[in-house]
Design goal:
Blueprint (H helix, E strand, L loop, with lengths): L17 H13 L13 E2 L8 E6 L5 E4 L5 E5 L5 E5 L5 E5 L6 E4 L5 E10 L12 E9 L5 E8 L1 E7 L5 E8 L2 E8 L5 E5 L6 E4 L5 E5 L12 E5 L5 E5 L5 E4 L5 E6 L2 E6 L5 E6 L7 E6 L5 E6 L10 E6 L5 E3 L7 E6 L5 E6 L3 E6 L1
Antiparallel strand pairs: 1-2, 2-29, 3-4, 4-5, 5-6, 7-8, 8-9, 9-10, 11-12, 12-13, 13-14, 15-16, 16-17, 17-18, 19-20, 20-21, 21-22, 23-24, 24-25, 25-26, 27-28, 28-29
């Protein structure tokens, strides 16, 4: 990988989370006239870059979630004030729009046929509550990726911080809380039924192992509250813990070979042995104290990408970086103006998509 430096985001009234912090930052963008942001969804432009490192820039209003289809042809993106759209990677043009109330969280199935969206605090009937108060739930919907049709709805969670589809395609994991408190629900992907409610700790991030047998979960360091902060590796069927660590992580990604877990916390990426949890190596992403908000191992295992910046405001220290495992070389990609909140790899590991508070999604050639 050549060393190029390119120049060219659901809230709850009673919970403080990274989601609410991100939305506070997005609110600041709307009054930041100096950013010169265009509120155009679906527009795209090719970069006139001599090295063709920046392949495409797409205007998206506050998209803070990304997922790349397994066939490489499309990306689905969404956010609190951004529509959930499936769009063509080559042209940036919209293929389908999903009528999701809130697309802050999303993922696509391994076979590329379905999309899951999560978010949107809904208020239910107060008569169902023992306290006589309205009950809230966060809607989870499975969609047909081609037609945009709604297939399955799951309302078992009152609040959701993260969602992830299992690599084998059979289950979906949801991090947040339900009527009984903090939990991670593991659900049947297409039936929408609850298979396991894991309640061993307060969590906001998770990642599946490549064989779908385990889940690693943790809590953001930037989320306030008085509780024990742990990172746990556990069986996705039984809920049995295999590793418990007394730390936190803003972002998690399991290596394709299943041997390591990349954990992003503060401005540091730490690689841990997936069997023992022990640290194998770590590196600092920046000298500006800009926190890591997302980390992703490339599908071929050669690279680790990370993005970040303050989730509380449009941080000019926002960044996109890629570490090449074999050489240890870190490449920074410049173009986003402020905090970069999400990222996604193409299936062939040749491209990286990043989404920023500057209301653009960019696709980079690696």
């Amino acid at each position: 990988m050549q060393n190029y430096l390119k120049c060219f985001t659901y809230t709850s009234a009673t919970r403080l989370s990274r989601r609410s912090l991100c939305l506070a930052g997005l609110g600041m963008i709307s009054v930041g006239a100096s950013l010169n942001i265009r509120h155009v969804v679906g527009a795209s432009s090719r970069a006139a870059s001599p090295d063709n490192h920046l392949l495409l820039t797409r205007q998206n209003s506050h998209s803070t979630a990304l997922a790349w289809s397994r066939d490489g042809g499309w990306i689905v993106s969404g956010g609190k004030t951004s529509p959930v759209e499936v769009w063509d990677v080559s042209t940036g043009k919209t293929r389908a729009s999903l009528t999701a109330r809130d697309g802050v969280l999303l993922d696509c199935s391994p076979d590329g046929r379905h999309i899951v969206t999560a978010g949107g605090i809904e208020v239910g009937d107060a008569s169902s509550s023992t306290a006589g108060l309205p009950q809230t739930f966060s809607e989870v919907v499975i969609w047909d990726a081609a037609s945009g049709a709604r297939l399955v709805t799951y309302n078992g969670m009152s609040y959701i911080n993260a969602v992830a589809w299992s690599p084998d395609g059979t289950r979906i994991a949801l991090v947040g809380s339900d009527a009984d408190g903090a939990t991670i629900h593991v659900c049947d992907a297409l039936a929408g039924t609850l298979l396991l409610a894991y309640r061993q700790h307060v969590a906001s991030r998770l990642a599946w192992s490549p064989d779908s047998r385990q889940i690693v979960s943790s809590i953001d360091s930037i989320i306030g509250g008085v509780f024990t902060r742990t990172t746990r590796i556990w069986d996705s069927v039984t809920g049995h813990d295999s590793v418990v660590l007394n730390n936190s992580a803003n972002a998690l990604s399991w290596s394709p070979d299943g041997r390591f877990i990349a954990c992003g916390d503060a401005e540091v990426i730490t690689l841990r042995d997936a069997r023992t949890g022990s640290v194998t190596t770590s590196y600092k992403t920046n000298n500006d104290q800009a926190p890591v908000l997302g980390v992703a191992w490339s599908p071929d295992g050669r690279f680790i990408a990370c993005v970040g910046g303050s989730p509380q405001f449009p941080d000019p220290k926002g960044f996109v970086q890629v570490l090449e495992q074999a050489t240890g070389q870190v490449t920074s990609f410049h173009g986003h103006k402020v905090t970069v909140a999400a990222l996604a790899w193409s299936p062939d590991s040749s491209r990286l998509a990043s989404s920023s508070y500057d209301e653009t999604i960019r696709i980079w050639h690696i």
